[in-house]
Amino acid sequence: MIKVITYGTYDLLHQGHINLLRRAKSLGDYLIVGVTSDSFDRGRGKLNVRNNVLERVEAVKATGYADEVIIEDYIGQKIDDIQKYDVDIFAIGNDWEGKFDYLNEYCKVVYLPRTEGISSTMLREESQEVYRLGIIGSGRIAHRFVPETKVVNGVEVKAVFNPDAKESKCFAIKHGIEAYSDFDSFIHQVDIVYVASPHMTHYDYVKCCLLANKHVLCEIPFVLCKEQALELYRLAEERNLVLMEASKTAYCPAFGHIVTLVKSGIIGDVVDVKASLSKQVLPPTRELDPIQAGGAMNEHAPLCLMAIVRLLGVDWHDVSFHTKKENGVDIYTQGVINYPHATSSFTLGIGVKTEGNLVISGTKGYVYVPAPWWLTDFFEVRYEDQTKNKKFFYSYDGEGLRYEIQEFLSMIVNNRRSCYKLCRRESEAIAEIIGKYNNGENVTEI
Ligand code: CTP
After folding, report:
1. 121 CB less than 6 Å from ligand 1?
2. Same domain, 202 and 240
3. Nearest CA residue ID for atom 24, ligand 1
4. Is 9 in the pocket of ligand 1 (CB under 6 A)?
5. Ligand 1 centroid distance, CA of 16 (Å)
6. Could you tell me if 166 and 262 lie in one domain?
7. Nearest Cα residue to 155 out of 131, 139, 135
């Protein structure tokens, strides 16, 4: 019996897939089809897949060509499968010509003709409404944001707003979009908004966008106190709009995996979370300007606090800070958040350099995420018995902003108003702790 194997995502199953499966089956007697898992696709940068793995498996089965369907979940699995299932022929469309020649060592490799004029990407693009996105602010993060939108289906950056006409024009020319220095004209040209303006302006801009009935993705720090966060989320809810904090690490696949592993008990009960983040800056810069809400806390606390509240929740019983200030901003702040059954701390620097890792300690082991943990692409679960240690590798594509953009679009398209990767309550808790620091509650200067 000749066994053939082929792989694919098979999203929105189309005639090209059916032709490929028919051709693959005709090469032998028994066809095994490997369908990619959702997490494997996300990990290799395929962010826009519409059907989940179960739907895609069902669609492949319904073609009647597959004798067996398996799930492809990791890089290198093809070599394992070919040996495990005693495969004779590996077949794939000729858009992959040459890419799988390395499998010749294990079986025969056949590149089959691809059907012209159709693909899942094409079908996704044809069927999806394209939202016009406007950016408020034209600083560093906004520049990095635009290219990241290009890998997400259903969104196109159309306009930028900056009250300084020269700055908005300069940004617009660079990215081929329209420039506005008048807010009302800008807001009428877009469907959804990314707020990336100076920290102190987030509250006002988010409010104006929500009042204009636009969905909003707001850069961190979302707002600088709990009251503002509560008010804005309430407003979004009343108007059935998406309001999302752009805490990029929260939406990246590797960080999500850390949270699910820890919650499933892989290191026992979590007793301590330590998150650090330091990026030294030189004057003159916004980060060192007290007028622009500079300082290590406002700048870096959102990501560290996000990790802590995602892992330990929002029901802490006390929070305290030790801080070193220079010229009106904190160049270093360490905070401690105590919970009934756990403790946590965060260490932030803009004028002090320190290690930027994340360590989650539990009763059975710990998770170590090396610096820069906020661009998570690798982590290790460690135990007393080192033979049980396990390393996890992921790709953190581009600037990593694509994951939050994809989540933002998915919430809008699917009419979801809350996101388990960073829920409203967690976002409010982050603003609350930043607010406590800015109010001087339990703050000791060193
Ligand atoms: N395929 C094909 N003809 C097409 C599209 C896909 O023969 N028009 C083949 C691919 O070469 C591969 C298999 O179908 O062997 C599964 O491909 P997949 O990547 O799932 O489909 P695409 O339509 O190419 O998906 P996407 O646009 O997301 O890349």
Report:
1. yes
2. yes
3. 119
4. yes
5. 7
6. no
7. 131
Nearest to 445 by CA among 349, 352, 334: 334
What pLDDT sits at residue 292? 92
State residue 47's pLDDT score.
Answer: 87
The protein residue with its alpha carbon nearest to ligand 1, atom 16, reads: 8
Residues 196 and 52 occupy one common structural domain: no
Q: By residue range, what is the domain housing residue 433?
A: 250-445
Mean pLDDT by 10 residues, the chain (446 residues): 98 97 98 95 86 94 98 94 98 96 98 96 88 97 96 94 98 98 98 97 98 98 98 98 98 93 97 97 92 96 98 98 97 98 98 97 98 95 97 85 93 89 97 98 98
Tell me how far the alpha carbon of residue 8 lies from the centroid of ligand 1, in angstroms: 7
d(CA 353, CA 331): 10
Q: How far is the CA of 13 from the centre of ligand 1 (A)?
A: 9
| 20 pocket-lining for ligand 1 (C-beta < 6 Å) | yes
Q: What string of DSSP letters covers 240-286?
A: T--EEEE-GGGGSHHHHHHHHHHHTTTTSSEEEEEEEEE----SSSG
Decide: 160 and 175 in contact? Cβ < 8 Å: yes
Its pTM stands at 0.86
pLDDT score for 409: 92
Q: How far is the CA of 18 from the centre of ligand 1 (A)?
A: 10
Residue after which a domain boundary falls, among 248, 280, 297: 248
**C-beta of 36 in contact with ligand 1 (< 6 A):** no
Residues 198 and 335 in one domain: no
Of the three residues 189, 224, 248, the one that is the final residue of a domain is 248
Same domain, 166 and 52: no
Q: How many residues in the chain? A: 446
Could you identify the residue written with the tokens 């802590």? 308
Q: What is the pLDDT of residue 44?
A: 82
SS3 content of the chain, % helix, strand, coil (to 5): 40, 25, 35
Query: Ligand 1, atom 11: nearest CA belongs to which residue?
Result: 93
Distance 93 CA to ligand 1 centre (A): 7
CATH of the domain at 368: 3.30.360.10
